[in-house]
Every structure is written in structure tokens, then in C-alpha cells.
Design goal:
Keywords: Hydrolase
Helix content: 25-40%
CATH topology: Rossmann fold
Distance between the termini: 22 Å
Organism: Plastoroseomonas arctica
Protein name: Alpha/beta hydrolase
Number of helices: 10
Shape: globular
Oligomer: single chain
Structural class: alpha/beta
GO molecular function, one term: hydrolase activity
Number of strands: 10
Order of helices and strands: EEEHEHEHEHHHEEHHEHEH
CATH architecture: 3-Layer(aba) Sandwich
Domain AB hydrolase-1: 31-274
CATH superfamily: Alpha/Beta hydrolase fold, catalytic domain
CATH class: Alpha Beta
Radius of gyration: 18 Å
């Protein structure tokens, strides 16, 4: 794996990780992993380890998340700027027609790319996101992600996540500990804080993000590419009625439904791994 530090148009530094297949491997479409609104590319490391045996995989930390720079002005976290950053990273790293695996916010970015640059995509995996977003789930995201627990230990962070997050039935004790470590980091004060700038939430998905466009039109822009959906069946972000309409509009869409799982699947679930690996394998 090779880390990259990429300068955005305004000089903010974006962190990406570039996983390359062994020398001599056949050239196949790369995979670009786009995390949820407050998550990081590290969520996809297991997927990257698997897929990089045969093809290139790039994971990205958006501005204000993970190892990417924080912005002085939170307006920098608007969705339109995040989309521009992703397109610029694709150009800088020469990522041509990737299969995009997008969790939640990352899936929305994939849809937006389908509108802005229709020929830039080789395929899309939407992880628990669609053209309509459940109001209860949206409100939870806004409330939870603007908070800094200022926790004294990783164990305390784990307990907080277990109590607050939607169901993740496939996470065992080790899985919850890993998830806590991917979510919080020890600061200079010795306490644990989010791996995202808590100011970003209102700008990225709240009132500062502006009026929501017709996301069904965005979904329709993916009509020309292979499409897969991973759905947590008890998700309060992606509701059954939305999934039913997506299936009607795209009957060829591959769907992996995870019973008892909320928003968002970690993509470490056995069914998700099998489904994603088969989907990507079918794309040259």
C-alpha cells in the first residue's frame, strides 16, 4: 500500500491509500472506495486487501476526516466541494473508470459523478444509500456525529458505539473494538475524539448543504453502469419502499440484503463480502 498526500485546489491536503496488485497482474478496472460522511478510507482496508490481489484499489479520506487536513472554514465541507475533490483525486492518481464502492455519503457522490461525468464510472456499489433518505435516520446522523465524546479510553468509545448505533449483528467483541478504533483516535490531551471535524456535519448533510436535488435523477444517471446495492434491512436511512422503487427502476441491480442490520453495513459481513467480490469480479 502506498499513501498519497494530494493537494486540493485550495491547498488543503487530502489523504489517499493506493493498493496495487502484484507485478504482472492483468490490467483490470480499478476500485475507488468512498466512505460515509464522517468515516475514512480505513473502513475499506479488508476489501482493499482482497481486491488488490487482482486490481488496483484506492481509498480516500475526505477533507476534515481521518488523515486529511481540517478546513479553517467549515463551509469547505459542502457536498459540491467534496465531489470536486473526488474528481480531482481521480485525475491526480489517474483512476480511470473505477468501480466505486460508496458507503452512504460516498454512494451519493458516486451518483453525482454519474451526472457530472457519465463516462467516468465502470460500476457502482451503493452501501445502504438510495435516492430517498429516511427522516429518522437523517436526524440521528446530525445529532450523533456533531458530538465529541471526549472519552477517557477506547473501551469507553466502544461502549458508546454499542449503545448508540443501529444494530450490527455480525460484529463480535473484536469487531466492535476495531470499529471503535476506526471511529475515534487519542488526541494530544490523552483522550479519545472523533476522527472527523465535528463542524462538518451541518455543512455536509445539514442545513448548510443547501436544498437537496432530485436524487432519483442522480440514481437514474447510473443507468449505463453495472450496479449493486448492499442494504441493511433495518436501516433508518434506506427504507424498504425506497429499495422497492430502486429495484423497479433497475431490475438488473444486484442486491445483498442483510437481515437485522442497520445503517451502515461495515462490508465485513459474510454475505456482503461474497456479493461485492462476485460483482467486482464480473467487471473486466
Amino acid at each position: 500500500m502506498t499513501p498519497h498526500r494530494i493537494s486540493a485546489r485550495d491547498g488543503l491536503i487530502l489523504h489517499a491509500e493506493d493498493w496495487r496488485p502484484p507485478a504482472g497482474a492483468a490490467h483490470r478496472s480499478p476500485v475507488l472506495c468512498l466512505p460515509g460522511v464522517c468515516r475514512t478510507g480505513a473502513d475499506f482496508r479488508r476489501l482493499a486487501e482482497r481486491q488488490s490481489r487482482t486490481r488496483r484499489v484506492v481509498t480516500l479520506d475526505y477533507a476534515g476526516r481521518g488523515a486529511s487536513d481540517r478546513a479553517a472554514d467549515p463551509a469547505r465541507y459542502r457536498p459540491d466541494i467534496a465531489i470536486r475533490d473526488v474528481l480531482d483525486v481521480m485525475a491526480a492518481l489517474q483512476i480511470d473508470r473505477p468501480v466505486v464502492v460508496g458507503t452512504s455519503f460516498g454512494g451519493l457522490i458516486a451518483m453525482a459523478i454519474g451526472v457530472i461525468r457519465p463516462t467516468a464510472l465502470g460500476g457502482v456499489v451503493l452501501n445502504d444509500i438510495g435516492p430517498e433518505i429516511g427522516a429518522i435516520g437523517h436526524a440521528f446522523v446530525l445529532d450523533f456525529l456533531r458530538r465529541d465524546p471526549n472519552a477517557e479510553s477506547l473501551e469507553a468509545c466502544e461502549a458508546l458505539l454499542r449503545a448508540a448505533l443501529p444494530p450490527q449483528p455480525e460484529l463480535d467483541a473484536a469487531g466492535w473494538r476495531e470499529f471503535a478504533d476506526l471511529t475515534f483516535a487519542k488526541g494530544e490531551d490523552g483522550r479519545f475524539h472523533p476522527r472527523w471535524d465535528t463542524r462538518l456535519i451541518d455543512e455536509a448533510v445539514g442545513a448548510g448543504a443547501g436544498p437537496r436535488p432530485d436524487l432519483w435523477g442522480f440514481f437514474g444517471a447510473l443507468a449505463h453502469v453495472p450496479l449493486m446495492l448492499v442494504w441493511g434491512e433495518v436501516s433508518e436511512i434506506l427504507l424498504p419502499a425506497t429499495v422497492a422503487r430502486m429495484r423497479k427502476q433497475r431490475p438488473d441491480m444486484s442486491v445483498v440484503a442483510l437481515p437485522g442490520t442497520g445503517h451502515a453495513p461495515t462490508l465485513t459481513e459474510a454475505a456482503a463480502i461474497a456479493g461485492i467480490d462476485a460483482f467486482i469480479a464480473a467487471i473486466p
